[in-house]
Amino acid sequence: DADVTQTPRNRITKTGKRIMLECSQTKGHDRMYWYRQDPGLGLRLIYYSFDVKDINKGEISDGYSVSRQAQAKFSLSLESAIPNQTALYFCATQSGYYNEQFFGPGTRLTVL
Amino acid sequence: GNSVTQMEGPVTLSEEAFLTINCTYTATGYPSLFWYVQYPGEGLQLLLKATKADDKGSNKGFEATYRKETTSFHLEKGSVQVSDSAVYFCALSEANQAGTALIFGKGTTLSVSS
């Protein structure tokens, strides 16, 4: 079984719709991250959480919100999706003792 | 602030050719440095890492040496295979702090033909 899972893997939605992307992990890591990947821009950090009660904005948090429901779960929401949020979204986890991050398989989101 | 700069791609090579993907960084102190690889349709996987100056990370025939004097961490492989076709990301984490957010370069696409 995969250590970091993301659902859905693909999603097509319309402008103005609310959408939630979910991430779950079995690695027991405290730290979780959400990134978006766009061609030519690499990965950009949206939000991150160092434990259940800790939420921090990243480089590009506008238009997004997150919820850390448990140590193992970290959800990303788009309250009112817009076309320029079309991207590949990755969740990642990290131990507090090491710097490596472990990534989920990604969610491809298309906003029409 | 901290940043990572990678050579722009795509890089197109024939099988068994030598590969170099350049990566330079800007950071205070001694950050940890990473190369991640993203195969088509998949998430990022850690390829190799180095945590201090002059360390050499290696994995699957790939190597990179942490060069403090040139602030570089170039990725090399002596003989690439078609299966190495992927996007490669250089990344760093802040010095002396475990469990911090990584800063990624923009990625370099490698395409290897037989």
Question: How would you summarize the topology of this molecule?
Answer:
The complex is a heterodimer of chains A (112) and B (114).
Chain A: E1 4-7, E2 10-13, E3 19-25, E4 31-38, E5 42-51, E6 54-57, E7 65-70, E8 73-78, E9 87-94, E10 101-103, E11 107-111
Parallel strand pairs in A: 2-11
Antiparallel strand pairs in A: 1-3, 3-8, 4-5, 4-9, 5-6, 7-8, 9-10, 9-11
Chain B: E1 3-6, E2 11-14, E3 19-21, E4 23-26, E5 32-38, E6 44-50, E7 56-59, E8 62-65, E9 75-77, E10 86-93, E11 102-104, E12 108-113
Parallel strand pairs in B: 2-12
Antiparallel strand pairs in B: 1-4, 3-9, 5-6, 5-10, 7-8, 8-9, 10-11, 10-12
Short description:
The model of chain A has no long low-confidence stretch (mean pLDDT 93). Chain A is built from no helices and eleven strands. Chain A starts with a strand and ends with a strand.
Description:
The complex is a heterodimer of chains A (112) and B (114). Chain A is mostly beta strands. Helices cover 0% and strands 58% of the residues of chain A. Chain A is built from no helices and eleven strands. In chain A, the strands form two sheets. In chain A, strands 2, 4, 5, 6, 9, 10 and 11 form a seven-stranded mixed sheet that branches. In chain A, strands 1-3-8-7 form a four-stranded antiparallel sheet, with no helix packed on it. The mean pLDDT of chain A is 93. In chain B, 0% of the residues lie in helices and 50% in strands. Chain B is built from no helices and twelve strands. In chain B, strands 2, 5, 6, 10, 11 and 12 form a six-stranded mixed sheet that branches. A four-stranded antiparallel sheet of chain B has the order 3-9-8-7, with no helix packed on it. In chain B, strands 1-4 form a two-stranded antiparallel sheet. Chain B is an all-beta fold and 114 residues long. The model of chain B has no long low-confidence stretch (mean pLDDT 92). The chains are: A mainly beta (112), B mainly beta (114).
